[in-house]
Structures are given as C-alpha cells and as structure tokens.
Design goal:
five-stranded parallel beta sheet, 238 residues, alpha/beta, two-stranded antiparallel ribbon, Rossmann fold, 2 domains, 9 strands
C-alpha cells in the first residue's frame, strides 16, 4: 500500500522513537528532510554523534586513534566509540560512500545487540551501552549498498516528499506551489530545502533573482517563469 507524505512521516517519527529498532536506513531524494529527521526526531534528547561519509573517510577517523601527550601516547575515541559508550544515536550520512575500510568497521557495529562490538588497537573491546542505535541516510536506494550492509539494517524507510511541517513554514502562494509540485517526478521537482531558500532570498533580491541564485541561471529562469505563469502573472523581461 502506498503511503501519502504525512502518513510516511508519521511512520518515520515512530521508528526513530522506537527503543526496539536499533539500525535504521532512510533514503530519498535530496531536500526531503532525511538528515533533519535523523538529527531531531525520536531518541535524541541526550544528544547524538553524526558523520558524513566520503570515499576518503578512514576507519581511524571514526573508531579513534592515538594522540601524543608529551612523551606518551593516549588513545582518543572517535564518534563511533563515543556513541557506543554513551548509548547515543550515531547518524551516518551518505552511507553509500563508505569504502572498504569503513565497511569493515561498520559490519561488527551493526550486528545484533548480543554480538555488536568493536575491538580497539588498545586491546579493549567495546560493547554498545543501552540506548545506542544507528540511523543511516542516503540519496540512493538500498540496492546501491553491499548486500551484507543492507542485511544489517532492521528498518528501511523511503521518503519522497518533504515533511508537511516544512512546507507549512512557506507563505501562502509558495506553499501552494510547493504542494502542487509534489506531483512532479522527484528528479525534476524543486526540493523542500530549495523552496525554503527561495522564500528567504526573495524578500531581499526579488523573485527572479532569488530563482537565479538558488537554481543557477538557466534552470532559475525556467523556474521563475513557471512560478509566474502558475500564479497568473506575466514574466517580466529585463
């Protein structure tokens, strides 16, 4: 059964608030609020740790490393280990960019509660404290992830529309246009983030220049004219 935008976001909020679901993957087009949800919804009252992965991200950055302190070396926990020790949420943005080095670190981290653990170069083995859970986000679908990584996520959520509350913050005419644009295929749609940026810039720069700033010259001109026509206004030429 296909869910509408609001009911899908209700499910997202329920999953992010669950104490049963320990590993969560949220995918969808840019600007739909995946990262915002991971940072603000559910079990984040005590804080969280967040990492945006790139192909160059190393396991040492995430696990931790030794630091020189005088003539001694001292171990410094990375965000993975801090989240595990403190029982907090770990957010992994752009999970599909994880390289082999990082995947080797992720696999034992995302195991079931009974078997999840990471052994540090110090020899210490860290087990997750109660409350630890992982939320991963990506613009691409789970089919772009290695099968062993896909298999470790307990819940998979796909969001294709911005959260209704995000659109509600737009003023009347822009909100109506944004809601109407949800019928457009995602690859051609103006994202919720872009609508918000357009509204912010329009007050200072005017609608046409705001469109050019947000979307670039060519697409911006097209979107400006489309907005004017949708509002029954004739685009003005310079």
């Amino acid at each position: 059964m296909k869910r509408n935008g609001r009911s899908m976001w209700v499910l997202v909020e329920r999953v992010l608030g669950s104490r049963v679901v320990r590993t969560i993957l949220i995918v969808g087009p840019p600007g739909t609020g995946k990262t915002y949800a991971a940072y603000h919804m559910g079990r984040v009252q005590t804080g969280f740790y967040a990492v945006t992965l790139t192909e160059e991200t190393t396991a040492a950055e995430l696990r931790g490393h030794f630091l020189f302190k005088g003539s001694d070396t001292v171990w410094h926990d990375g965000p993975f280990i801090r989240a595990m020790r403190e029982g907090k949420r770990l957010v992994l943005n752009e999970i599909s960019h994880a390289n082999g080095d990082v995947l080797d670190l992720l696999f034992p981290l995302l195991e079931s509660w009974e078997t999840a653990r990471l052994t540090l170069p110090t020899g210490e083995t860290v087990h997750p404290a109660p409350g630890f859970h992982v939320v991963a986000t990506d613009n691409r679908g789970p089919e772009h992830l290695p099968e062993p990584l896909q298999d470790r996520f307990m819940a998979f959520l796909r969001v294709t529309e911005p959260h209704p509350d995000a659109l509600a913050k737009l003023r009347g005419e822009l909100r109506e246009l944004a809601e109407a644009s949800l019928a457009i295929p995602p690859d051609r749609r103006v994202t919720g983030r872009d609508w918000a940026h357009l509204q912010m810039l329009e007050a200072e720069f005017g609608r046409r220049d705001a469109c050019l700033l947000v979307f670039g010259p060519e697409r911006g001109e097209m979107i400006f004219e489309a907005i004017q026509l949708a509002l029954g206004e004739k685009p003005k030429k310079d």
